[in-house]
Amino acid sequence: MESGQLPVWRGLGLLGRGAESPSLGPGGCERRLLWVASLLCVLLDLQLPGLLAAGQAEIENHLEMGRKLLAAGQLAEALSHYHSAVEIDPKNYLTYYKRATIYLAMGKFKSALPDLSKAIELKPDFLAARLQRGNILLKQGSTQEARQDFEAVLRSNPDNTEAQSQLARVSELEFSMQEARTAFQRKNYLGAISILDRAIEISPWDPEAKELRSECHLFLGDYSKAILDLKPTTKLRNDNRGAFLKLSKLYYSLGEHEESLNQVRECLKLDQDDKNCFSHYKQVKKLSKQLEAAEEHVKAQRYEEAIEKYKAAVKTEPSVAIYTTQAKGHICHCLTKSKRPREAIDVCTEAHHLDPRNVFILRDRAEAYILNEEFEKAVEDYQEAKEFDGENEELKEGLERAQKLLKQSKKRDYYKILGIRRNANKQEIIKAYRKLAQQWHPDNFQSEDEKKEAEKKFIDIAAAKEVLTDPEMRQKFDSGEDPLDPENQQGGAGHQHHWPFEFNPFGSGNFHFKFHFN
Prior knowledge:
With 518 residues, the chain is an all-alpha fold. The protein contains 25 helices and no strands. The longest helix has 44 residues, at 28-71. Residues 1-24, 46-52 and 491-518 have low confidence and may be disordered.
């Protein structure tokens, strides 16, 4: 600032009397204030057209950017520009209307409604906004408010075909809902569903219609369809804790404890002190924890621990049958994997009665029958399971193996020869072999017939020991293939096995045996 130049506000005397300011006489202060006010008005009048022009240009820029982004399908970005336009000029009805169209394009009809109402408030004769609002209200099932909008349009434009058509749909919806309620009260649930199907076509955002159809499906025992109708109502109504709780209980009754837990948590998000939701949450949480722990034990092959967790889950929820059925099916699997065939067969049979089309229960019982050497029953179970799921490769392979074992059991069974179970370990096999080899030593017998019988048994005992102590040959035998059967050898060459004793079983004369108890 140049020397001697006073700031404008001091020149105007706005800081009071300064050293350079002359004193004001009587009434001078009032005259000075009036003069300053007049000067400010003049300045504002000079600048206002420019300010207005700048603001309008900014609005136009936001609207143009919004239009381009909308055309490009970038709805969220377009919406941000319409927000800015509304903030700059909150009295522009058209800006509210354009923002409402963006909301509708994004499926946010609840957000669109206030903008359409504001546009109508600013311009009551704006028919396009009334039609849009009426359409939304109709889809929400708010027939009275929708009727008012369509009738207002027709008063201004009696020939508006869209308003005429939508007004007829309002009447149809009102009639359909009344008919559906009557059918429901008369327990004509199928009839009510048929009527509600049409009503929901007209008002897809009406929670009442979906809730009523959901109730009809529940009474008909179709829980899946009931859930499909009930789910959207959690968003169509504000604070719809009742729907979340109902969904949670429906999923729980279907055995879907994880989804049940998700739904009841949504209820508690709305109100963590809701007593009904919290009580149900504790029950679902406890059961879910037990079942998840059981599944982890199964994955880690800790079958005994898994069985205990499944039994605990049955105690936690004894009244919902599906959890008992599922638990027994899982226990059946664990017992089979634990190689406890007799117990497994009993539990699997019980589980099969509860869930006769469950192929996994049939598979596990078949495996238990194999362990128990009941091969015909194993074949029957695999065949039954295959009827329910003919494309399941595991069942195909299991059936083939069971059939081979059945065929094999009618020939030479190495486990039976040694008198051991199919899950015997190597030490048990060798112990059984030693005992039988000593018992059937041909030198223990005197007559030629007895020696020949002993020789035959001794060969079988030795063959059994050779196969069952060799992991590869035992695996083949357990799969239904006799590794010592010439029919199973590649190229028909036969299996060149080495006997664990030194003698020629087909020679003549006295027998001299030398045992290798390894």
